[in-house]
Structure formats: C-alpha cells, structure tokens
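CHAIN AND CONFORMATION:

***
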Amino acid sequence: MIQLGGRFFKNILIEFGIPKKLVRLIKMCLTETYSRVRVGKNLSDMFPIRNGLKQGDALLPLLFNFALEYAIRRVQVNQDGLKLKGTHQLLAYADDVNILGGNVHTVKENAETFFVATKEIGLEVNADKTKYMIMSRDKNEGQSHSMKTDNSSIERVEEFKYLETRLTNKNSIQEEIKNRLKVGNACYYSV
C-alpha cells in the first residue's frame, strides 16, 4: 500500500516535474475519502479511508510508478554494482525489481538502500518473495545460502525467470534456447 498523505510524497511529485497545481489536485483526491462495503444486498455505512489509496483508484498505477521510480533512483546513486554500458543496473518492470551485482556485498548494500527508500514512501518489499542470485566467474563468490538484510533473510537461488527469460548464475543460455525451441515447435506443430 502506498501511503501518500505526507509532504514527502508531494515533494517526490514536484521533483519529477509535476506542476504544483496538479499535485494539489491529487492531494485533494486522496484526502477525506470514504468507502462502503457491499455484502450480498446490504451496503455498509460510510467509513473514512485514513491511509493509502482505495483499491481500484485510477491514480494508483501512476502514483505507484512515481514511488517506485524514486526508490530505483536512490539505488542508482550507489556507485557500486554491476555496470552494463557504463551505467549501474537495476531491472524493474511493474512491481518486479532485480538488483544486479557481481558480489554478495554489492547486492546486499543495494538491496538495503532500496528497502530504505521504499519504506520512506510507504511501499513494502515482500521478504518472502525476495531472492538473490550472484552472477560471477568466481566459483567461491556468494557461497552462503542466505543473506540477512532489513531483519529479513533472503534466499539465494541458482536461477530465476525475468520477463519469461531464465537467467542462471553461470550466465548460461543453453537451457533457455532449448526451452524456446520447444515452445516454438509446440506452436508450429499445433497448427
């Protein structure tokens, strides 16, 4: 849940270049909101929404993107990490975020920075769904099976899927190629 009542989120919107008038209009939409619950044919009395956004609110995806972009930029400021084409890498699509690093220390440091930034704006990282993987040529790198950060233990994995592509800690694509050929053949021969 994004908690948007504070001055902090207002400043984030202004930092992203949203005009102050539009920020005030957004704040008006989020303050003094009420809701009702329907159970069968019965409708409850109105009750105030004190924290966060109403489910299904049209502003939610847009405000979530601003909040997540803010947290991502905080991690990008950290100068350690994997560099691809000269920039530090953090992959994000919708609410799926991947922090890349060449060693456990870098991944842990960047993850902690990300967790702090998300907490500041009211987003919560689900520790049970959080995993880490070290992609390194050093076979001894990241031998521990879990990493502690933010009072949570993060499990180490050997591979994961990102946008339907399987990434492995050995940076091998042979299994991914076999899988794509299998899916393509199944599609081709089904016609």
